[in-house]
Write a structure and sequence with these properties.
alpha+beta
Length: about 90
């Protein structure tokens, strides 16, 4: 099941009503002007979202986590983001 379908079910929308009224995490983050190409999101059954990948700086990391937490139906964020590009030292994990 795709992430958007999971968000729809979490919000209580039926699959027969694909109106596109639910904005997913990628669209939410892009609206902040943050590149999402190095990010991955997964929704857990408990309503938390795992975020993995690389961000430019700590400010982007903080903004991403705040925006995802503010999404309707999200119980929390499991932040596994790393600051820097994918060639950076993995010890920089946040």
């Amino acid at each position: 099941m795709g992430l958007m379908k999971k968000f729809s079910k979490l919000k209580g929308n039926s699959e027969s009503n694909p109106t596109g009224t639910i904005k997913g995490p990628v669209a939410t983050i892009r609206e902040l002007g943050i590149d999402t190409s190095d990010l991955k999101f997964s929704l857990n059954q408990d309503g938390t979202v795992n975020i993995t990948g690389y961000v430019r700086d700590q400010s982007d990391c903080d903004r991403i986590c705040q925006a995802i937490k503010a999404m309707p139906g999200i119980a929390g964020v499991k932040n596994k983001l790393m600051v820097g590009d994918c060639e950076s030292d993995p010890e920089q994990a946040i």
